[in-house]
């Protein structure tokens, strides 16, 4: 009944051959509602693309990639990380993980509604963390994650730019709560029994989070047969929030291939003109 309720008010309208995006709300009784945006494929696409959002300024809750993906031949589900006006890493409020349950129910409901043969998920930074988390949790076909945070609790702890987000997520920021959130993503990556997803992790050594967030956690993927690591280094790339944009063409190329049932095996590659000859030959 819940899945029927989820979609019974959804109507798709078309202008010429271009499907319109529609902003919708998944209401769950007395639980926090989940805002999402949906666009149905204009063609005969059998691919669902789920988009998770990173932190944005000045509004940290806006949708990512609303314009750049509209031409893709996929059904697209954007999930908004907006709970009482602030992001929650799509996980929790006051350490209650009803948000996570709702996001999972929404993902499962949309997949069941569309009955697509292939499902992919994409996100950068916070969105990259949650693309990885929910992609593995739901055993999705393809996961694109750019510069994810693994130590989620520490990233929103005392003294961080997003401390106010941490206070809403944890209620009280304590070492216990920080440790609990820090363990969420590494545990999901390491302990899941299903390791069939094709994972594409985009990162860069110039990212200030590279040594703390990426390098220590790469061993977690050693048992993933379809893990791909893309490292970027360029004079055009100087900080964390530029990595996804720098690789946008590669990310779109992946999505176009996913739409056609292709999940390429890239392995460990390096791109950009910032590598010396020895570094480039991984």
What does this 3D model show about the protein?
Helix 3 (126-137) crosses helix 6 (175-191). The chain has ten helices and eleven strands. The protein has a nine-stranded mixed sheet with strand order 3-4-6-5-7-8-9-10-11, with helices on both faces. Strands 1-2 form a two-stranded antiparallel ribbon. Mean pLDDT is 90; it is low at 1-17. A hairpin with a 2-residue loop joins strand 3 (22-28) and strand 4 (31-39). 32% of the residues lie in helices and 21% in strands. It is globular. The chain is of the alpha/beta class.
Question: Which helices and strands, and how do they pair?
Answer:
Layout: H1 2-7, E1 14-15, E2 18-19, E3 22-28, E4 31-39, E5 47-52, E6 75-79, H2 98-114, E7 118-124, H3 126-137, E8 142-146, H4 152-155, H5 163-170, H6 175-191, E9 198-203, H7 210-214, E10 227-232, H8 243-246, H9 248-259, E11 268-271, H10 277-280
Parallel strand pairs: 5-6, 5-7, 7-8, 8-9, 9-10, 10-11
Antiparallel strand pairs: 1-2, 3-4, 4-6
Q: Count every helix, treating DSSP H or I runs of 4 or more residues as helices.
A: 10
- How would you classify the helix and strand content by structural class? alpha/beta
Helix content: 25-40%
- Oligomeric description of these chains: single chain
Please state the overall shape, judged from the principal axes of the Cα atoms: globular
Q: Which regions have little confidence, pLDDT < 50, spanning 5+ residues?
A: 1-17
Strand order of the largest sheet: 3-4-6-5-7-8-9-10-11
Radius of gyration: 18 Å
Please describe the biggest sheet, giving its number of strands, its sense, and whether it closes into a barrel: 9 strands, mixed
The total beta strand count reads 11
Strand content range = 15-25%
């Amino acid at each position: 009944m819940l899945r029927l309720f989820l979609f019974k008010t959804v109507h798709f309208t078309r202008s010429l051959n271009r499907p319109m995006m529609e902003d919708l709300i998944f209401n769950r009784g007395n639980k926090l509602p989940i805002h999402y945006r949906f666009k149905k494929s204009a063609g005969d696409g059998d691919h669902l693309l789920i988009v998770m959002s990173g932190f944005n300024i000045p509004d940290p809750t806006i949708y990512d990639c609303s314009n750049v993906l509209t031409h893709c031949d996929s059904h697209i589900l954007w999930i908004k990380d907006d709970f009482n006006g602030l992001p929650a890493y799509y996980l929790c409020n006051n350490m209650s993980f009803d948000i996570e349950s709702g996001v999972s129910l929404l993902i499962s409901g949309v997949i069941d509604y569309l009955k697509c043969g292939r499902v992919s998920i994409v996100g950068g930074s916070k969105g990259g963390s949650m693309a990885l988390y929910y992609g593995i949790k739901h055993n999705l076909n393809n996961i694109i994650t750019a510069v994810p945070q693994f130590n989620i609790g520490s990233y929103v702890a005392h003294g961080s730019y997003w401390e106010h987000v941490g206070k809403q997520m944890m209620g009280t920021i304590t070492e216990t709560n920080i440790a609990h959130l820090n363990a969420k993503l590494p545990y999901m990556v390491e302990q899941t029994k299903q390791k069939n997803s094709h994972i594409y992790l985009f990162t860069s050594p110039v990212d200030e989070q590279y040594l703390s967030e990426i390098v220590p956690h790469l061993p977690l993927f050693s048992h993933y047969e379809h893990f791909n690591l893309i490292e970027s280094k360029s004079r055009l790339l100087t900080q964390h929030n530029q990595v996804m944009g720098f690789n946008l063409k590669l990310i779109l190329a992946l999505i176009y291939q996913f739409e056609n049932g292709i999940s390429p095996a890239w392995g460990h590659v390096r791109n950009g003109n910032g590598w010396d000859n020895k570094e480039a030959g991984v």
